[in-house]
Amino acid sequence: MAEQEVELKRGLRDVYFESTESSLVIGSVGRLIYRGYDIHDLAERATFEEVAHLLLEKHLPTQAELDAFSASLRQCREIPPEVTEIIERIKDGHPMDVLRTAVSALAAFEPGVDDVSHEGTLRKGIKITAQTPTIVAAHHRIRSGKPPVPPDPSLPHAANFLAMLFGERPDDETARLIDKDLIVHLDHGANASSFAARVTASTLADVHGAVVTGLSTLKGPLHGGAAEGVMKMALEIGEVENVEAYLAAKRERRERIMGFGHAVYRAEDPRARHLREGSRRLAEKMGDPKWFQILSEVEKRMQPYAERGICVNVDFWAGSVYYLLGVPEDLFIPIFAVARVPGYVAQILEQQDKNMLIRPQMRYDGPMDAEFVPIAERG
Ligand code: CMC
After folding, report:
1. CB atoms within 10 A of CB 218
2. Which of 32, 256, 271, 340 to mutate to test the pocket of ligand 1 (most atoms within 8 A of CB)?
3. For the purposes of burial, counting CB atoms within 10 Å of the CB of 51, is it exposed (0-12), middle (13-18) or buried (19 or more)?
């Protein structure tokens, strides 16, 4: 075995590979900051468009800037008919596979696809941000045997997404809840998928490619896929009185509880609060309190884990919000993606503005000095 005297930082935990002005996760106290603003202020007082502007343009917009930014998003929502055709051909795939394939295909129709100037990446990044909800909704409609609903330029980002998904305008409360959900999912420090997008961007590959890398990484159950797992768990539990036995069996099998724990947070994920409240209100409004009650009981009984720093995370409550809205489970990650794409773009811009190729090292633990044996002589 080769012996190299190096200290491994597996999973790159606690490694600072770059500086950022985009977002800060303070794990010890459960704080999240986007460009100086606390996530609670942004979630309660701003809209998705304002926060996306904050991340992409580096400041909260004036009314005139917001109007111009919202107009540019609304103008770019359409996707080429060829991309809709591709979606039709692959409609039986997982929505995340369809989404990443469709975003990849968009590159083929994008003039200046290889332009990695700040202006070029920003222009294309805003367009991908606008097109992502159209792709997710079109795919869902097509696979349900219904025609895609064209984007409605009179609606803001979140409301238009819901209208394209369900075929009817959402009420204001629902639109605001999803708007808030998109805000809290927008960016999150060196999360796995934004880091992956940065790695691609650091080769000076184009923004479409870097976003596709991010989307591919987001799909995993340890990252974007946890909300789907939470709702599966709630359905398996079935009734509030089964919670204790369910968790005991999970503990016995040493299985993880989806929606708990985080690579950085050792206190409650600050994003969870907004979705817990959203889930509670939605359950009340729909007269369907069961899932909220089951999840509340799970959260209560996970208190011993919280004392070890394994606390509730954003995905725990996000799943129940989507479920109560009638969103199928396999669309939970694509909703996360709709929110995170402008976060990727903000980080891709930041990466390329002061680029350095991301190229770490690995300790080699394999053999050395192996003697080459020709194929005919190998036993
Ligand atoms: N349930 C039970 N035990 C857990 C959990 C959990 N959800 N999370 C961590 N642990 C335990 C783990 O088994 C380990 O115990 P031990 O030391 O006895 O082996 C210890 O905590 C440390 O685990 P780790 O994997 O080294 O810790 P991590 O900080 O790298 O894990 C995580 C982060 C997100 C991968 C993990 O908490 C997890 O798998 N959670 C469930 C999946 C989930 O909810 N993911 C969504 C994250 S939030 C959305 C996002 O921002 O991506």
Report:
1. 26
2. 256
3. buried
| Residue 274 a catalytic site member | no
**pLDDT tens per residue across all 379 residues of the chain:** 555 789 999 999 989 999 999 999 999 999 999 999 999 999 999 999 999 999 999 999 999 999 999 999 999 999 999 999 999 999 999 999 999 999 999 999 999 999 999 999 999 999 999 999 999 999 999 999 999 999 999 999 999 999 999 999 999 999 999 999 999 999 999 999 999 999 999 999 999 999 999 999 999 988 898 888 898 999 999 999 999 999 999 999 999 999 999 989 999 999 999 999 999 999 999 888 998 999 999 999 999 999 999 999 999 999 989 999 999 999 999 999 999 999 999 999 999 999 999 999 999 999 999 999 999 999 8
Q: Which of 315, 330, 353, 365 is catalytic?
A: 315
How would DSSP label each residue in 171-194? PHHHHHHHHHHHHHTS-BTB-HHH
DSSP strands (E only) in the chain: 23-26, 31-34, 37-38
- How far is ligand 1, taken at its centre, from the CA of residue 263, in Å? 7
Q: Which domains does the chain have, with CATH numbers?
A: 23-220+330-353 (1.10.580.10), 226-324 (1.10.230.10)
Tell me which residue has tokens 């000095």. 369
Sign of CA dihedral 309, 229, 181, 19: positive
